[in-house]
Amino acid sequence: MVTKRNVNVGTIGHIDHGKTTLTAALLRVQAAKGLAKVKSYQDIAKGGIVRDKGKTVTILASHVRYETENRAYAHIDCPGHVDYIKNMITGAAQMDGAVLLVSAVDGPMSQTREHLLLARQIGVPHLVVFMNKCDLVEDAELLTLVELEVRELLTHYGFPGDTVPVIRGSAKLAHDAPSDPAASRCINELLHALDTAIPDPVRQVDKPFLMPIENVFSIAGRGTVVTGKIEQGTVRSGDAIEIVGLTDQTVSDVVTQVESFAEVLESGEAGANVGCLLRKTRHDQVHKGQVLAARGSVTLRRQFEAEVYVLKKEEGGRHTPFFDGYTPQFFFRTANVTGKTHVVGDAAMALPGDGVQLQVDLLQPIAVSQGDRFAIREGGKTVGSGVVTKVTA
Ligand code: GDP
Ligand code: MG
């Protein structure tokens, strides 16, 4: 049997527009075909607890799985608006694409806009719209108007509003009669749209090699070995690499051996913990916090913009807001760099529990790319969690 490609998706949209009902309906319709296991609306609505990678932010979210003929979908549904903000910023579950729910009765609302903006900012690359509750709207013209409004909004937030698939339907009717062809048609249309509008995600192993350096060893008679967990790509003996970050000088070298637990490997892939023996770099020329990367694949950066979730007191975060000029530590991978912040917005203030936009100037350059995630720490505790939305210098 061929293994189906895994694709991560989720429901986003304003409260009460039907995200959880749709999630349950997707499971029921696919379960009727033997392509999912049913989970009740109540169970999905409860949400499980996930923590972000830095083990700092607690997010309520339900994970469900269903398949189509071609793909296996891992789907996330969050109970509350703040859970979406946290999830999208911290990447507790990253989405290759999202289903934006819009109630045909209400049209786009405040949280519709907020989720769209976040999806744009943090790089949810593809959207499909489900115009829900069409069973409550008799006037076909009204549906057309709502669809137009949604398409304009998509364009406003930088998505291709003219071409994004918009499926009209009723999650509730599909949920209540999953085997009824008329009721389940909208779900089948939605699944077809997911299969076609979201391209296969690029797998981590297919990206350029990158490994954050965790440790540096000097081995008598052999040279310098750097260790870490490969974040993306593949490394082989003979590969041209560079050592990047913390200083303005980038060191070029060649990996002469890849090993894991004293065993020599032919290659190391994303996810593996490895040691790389370097041809000529001395152990005092390479440090924890730098990255080992395919030559020419990363650039040193000092300035970026980010979306940040500021942890609440109960989450171990600050008790008080911070303001423009706040200068905490930024943790990117294994690097720990001081950065000066500018809080975007009129208030120029970030309250615990808020999602905010920051402009950051790092005191030392590191490898930073759009989509990279980081933690903000102060006095040894994590006070924020963020994602790079734009690299500016
Ligand atoms: P969420 O907050 O976006 O997850 O919304 P829910 O899925 O909890 O739905 C909110 C309410 O809308 C619930 O009472 C649902 O039964 C109802 N609802 C959801 N989808 C539909 C639909 O297609 N038609 C109708 N009439 N009601 C719906
Ligand atoms: Mg819900």
Automatic annotation (TrEMBL):
The keyword Protein biosynthesis applies. Keywords: Elongation factor, GTP-binding, Hydrolase, Nucleotide-binding, Protein biosynthesis. GO terms for cellular component: cytosol. Gene3D superfamilies: P-loop containing nucleotide triphosphate hydrolases (3.40.50.300), Translation factors (2.40.30.10). It comes from the Bacteria. GO terms for molecular function: GTP binding; GTPase activity; translation elongation factor activity. SUPFAM superfamilies: EF-Tu/eEF-1alpha/eIF2-gamma C-terminal domain (SSF50465), P-loop containing nucleoside triphosphate hydrolases (SSF52540), Translation proteins (SSF50447). PROSITE patterns: G_TR_2. Residues 4-202 form the Tr-type G domain. The keyword Thylakoid does not apply. Monomer. Heterotetramer composed of two EF-Ts.EF-Tu dimer complexes. (Microbial infection) Upon infection by bacteriophage Qbeta, part of the viral RNA-dependent RNA polymerase complex, the other subunits are the viral replicase catalytic subunit (AC P14647), host ribosomal protein S1 and EF-Ts. May play an important regulatory role in cell growth and in the bacterial response to nutrient deprivation. Belongs to the TRAFAC class translation factor GTPase superfamily. Classic translation factor GTPase family. EF-Tu/EF-1A subfamily. This is Elongation factor Tu. The lineage of its organism: Bacteria, Pseudomonadati, Planctomycetota, Planctomycetia, Pirellulales.
